[in-house]
């Protein structure tokens, strides 16, 4: 059977051969005095000119210290303007950034430091204790502190970010098509978190693809509460918006009242969200107390948003509530909803320069309105997983098609609908929770013989991680015992929310956990 390839209804775009930083800073000369980023809580603001100068000065200081292409740093902070400075300062110096979730435990951070080969860790005083514990036994020999502690000093054994600024430099020459600029970590379709190798060209291409179908006017302002360490926040909120000249108001974590206050105070025009935030906009009584009249659109991503919830939120705050589709391995956007193209339940249309296929379990391509796994090919497809050729080959086939692990259908007008998931990942409030990671952790407990973890549907969170546990003969544990054991070793969003004790974990003849049976009884 011949392939049925679906392409974008939008014309292809030219992808400039530049670094991601030069792309992001492309409008700085014209907008030199316009506010680029504001730290929402404190109100500190940076103009586009100041942002550019800080980035180039940090790049110069790093280069002068001997840092350059082939080296990796880890960046572990909440959303603050300095995140962009470090990210792009390292990129300008030719290096690679591995973005780390700051809510990780020291063990989780250590795994990422070891796997990525990071030699420096940038963080804020709040996470210094975790950072100091995490670098033990790794090649990461330096902690660089952004800001100071309550006493106005940088702790002993650490370096101040301010001390690294040097003579400004331009982009260090590198091969943009092949140089890996960022290593976010993703579980892909299954398994443990893996380093996703994204090149300068990957990021530039996706900004150009997405920006060509979603237009931003002069003077627009966006709320950036979705984390920059996650590909959605990094690319759609930080890089794309800055490259379009949009002002970015940062929040370190989501708090509904705080978000509403910033929307009102800064006349936010674009609100980027995940489904639980849309739920709050639709139903929480606090929303009625604030003026959101400047908001032009709410854009939801990271997990499917129901048509009913989108409609309820849109009616309440009087603007379009739309969604898009993507994944870390796709830099991330493959589908987005242009202004005025909203369709209930749709995750938008295919972005330019992107091909899609809908493939059933037998490998046969499906026609319009039929369901199957979504496959994607385009310049935004990752270079592969770091040091993991096997996982790369299982995700990207020999013809360059990335198998997303999501079940979708395309309608006759090119709109895509995500209807199910082939992959095992649990999505808790937009974050990936890999069952294999939790299962491996549970099996380290001396009383547990076997374990399986699945996602249970939940209106607010999307899915809740539930563990099925088989105890060793003669052993006894309570649900709280299991939850407390996991709680101390993983980030908050990965914690087990429910536990059920069963006599045996259902498995296939090959030993694969039969999760569908657990879902039926879950």
Report on the structure:
Helix 3 links the parallel strand 4 (72-76) and strand 5 (96-99). The protein has a seven-stranded mixed β-sheet with strand order 3-2-13-12-14-15-16, with helices on both faces. A five-stranded antiparallel β-sheet has the order 1-20-21-23-24, with no helix packed on it. The chain has a domain at 426-521: 2-Layer Sandwich (GMP Synthetase, Chain A, domain 3). With 522 residues, the chain is α/β, with parallel strands linked by helices. It is globular. The chain is 27% helix and 25% strand.
Quick structural summary:
The chain is an alpha/beta fold and 522 residues long.
Specify the structural class.
alpha/beta
**CATH architectural label of one domain:** 2-Layer Sandwich
Query: What's the count of strands?
Result: 29
Low-confidence stretches are: none
Count the DSSP helices. Answer: 14
Quaternary state of this entry equals single chain
* Helix-residue proportion: 25-40%
Instruction: Tell me about the largest β-sheet.
Output: 7 strands, mixed
Estimated radius of gyration = 23 Å
Gap between N and C termini, in Å? 38 Å
User: What fraction of residues sit in β-strands?
Assistant: 15-25%
Give the overall shape, derived from the CA principal axes: globular
Calculate the mean pLDDT score and round it.
Answer: 91
Give the CATH level 1 class of one domain: Alpha Beta
